[in-house]
Amino acid sequence: MELKDEITRIAAQETALRLPHFDEDFTWRLGSRLRGMAVERRLAVAIEIRRCGQLLFHAALPGTTPDNGEWIRRKGNVVTRFLRSSYAVGLSLQEKGGDLTSHYGLPAADYASHGGAFPLCVEGAGVIGFVAVSGLPQRLDHELVVEALSAELGLAYSLPPA
Known about the structure:
- By secondary structure, the chain is of the alpha+beta class.
- The protein has one domain (about 5-155): Haem-degrading domain (Beta-Lactamase, 2-Layer Sandwich), CATH 3.30.450.150.
- The chain contains six helices and five strands.
- The longest helix is centred in the N-terminal third of the chain and has 18 residues, at about 25-40.
- The model has no long low-confidence stretch (mean pLDDT about 95).
């Protein structure tokens, strides 16, 4: 898939996957869905859901390490800073020919523009947090989150062509 097409596709996901409401019950359902998908597929991933810096859900499956938590923290910082998915930010920077440090002066120790963190955008409120996965190649981290959000919102999902 062409870079420009991928950027457009992710922007459409960000628009479509807006939440009508958000609460702890939704968090539990989404986190449990993600964990269930990962267990069923035997994926070694860590999962987090945060609201305004507050950890609401965390799961680390067999095969993960503390490094997965660091990736989530850094990818989540990108969502919090740019109000976009970490994958969208990374692809946009790739298109421009740079990175977070050269374009924004952000340290790599605290920010990672790799796929896997997705904004939780509530209708009428805006971005209130993020859901993130770490452990797979970045595109697959991103798609796992999008697939789970789509299912939770009752929307169709299909993995795009490679």
